[in-house]
Amino acid sequence: MVVDAERTGGNLVTDLSSDPAQRGLHRYVQLVAAALGADLDRCRYEWDTQATAYLPLPQHIPGMTEFPAQAGHRLALAWDEQSGWSAGVDTGNDFLVLATYLDDIVPAPRVVAAFVCDVADGTAVASAPSDMDTGHSKAQVRQQLTAYAPTGPDTPTDLLPPRRL
Predict the structure, then answer these.
(1) 115 touches 100 (CB < 8 A)
(2) Is the pTM of this model over 0.90?
(3) Which helix (H) or strand (E) holds 99?
(4) 109-120 vs 20-36: helix axis angle to the nearest 10?
(5) Where is the DUF6292 domain (predicted)?
(6) CA dist 67 to 35, 55, 64, 113, Å?
(7) Greatest CA separation found in the chain?
(8) Which among 1, 110, 125, 145 is most buried, taking Cβ atoms within 10 Å?
(9) What pLDDT does residue 105 have?
């Protein structure tokens, strides 16, 4: 199931699912987007055979003229339950990975924001997703996502302080 902001009522969790891991993924994407100042309306995630997320970011990478911020080339984040977060350039046709966060599959949103800062300023070490320790089971990832599932009325992400890069 592909979920975007229009289908989920903007930045509030609605009746998405009774599955707490799916609701947790939705909330996790909200929190990461808020930490990065990303436009939640442009973020999307999918909960199908594999959980994935995609967040286009307002940041660009200074000095990387081969990836200009115009013409559809922009910094973005991609996440999946096997590889975790990768930062890259979305060319409109391809997602060119610049670096992958290797320490955790579901790091705290502030950690993801710090990772993006490192990528944007050139201090992140380039790595391939295959370098990830794949010792995380699907059940462990679901448990981590479930921890983000709201148990009551959800907090609109516009009330969360964004982290400006």
Answers:
(1) no
(2) no
(3) strand 95-100
(4) 40
(5) 28-116
(6) 24, 17, 6, 21
(7) 46
(8) 145
(9) 94
Task: Tokens for 78, please give them.
Answer: 């991609």
CA-closest candidate to residue 43, choices 35, 28, 33: 33
**Three-class secondary structure of residue 55 per DSSP:** strand
User: What pLDDT does 111 receive?
Assistant: 95
What is the 8-class DSSP label of residue 21? H
Contacts of residue 130, Cβ cutoff 8 Å, sequence gap at least 6: none
- The pLDDT tens digits for 25-34 are 999 999 999 9
- Return the structure tokens found at 26: 């939705």
- Give the count of alpha carbons within 13 A of 77, CB side only: 33
Each residue of 10-22: pLDDT tens digit?
Answer: 433 344 567 899 9
Tokens encoding 89: 């350039």
Residue 13 and residue 10: Cα distance in Å, rounded? 8
The two three-digit tokens of residue 128, written as one number: 């391939």
CA distance 90 to 49: 23
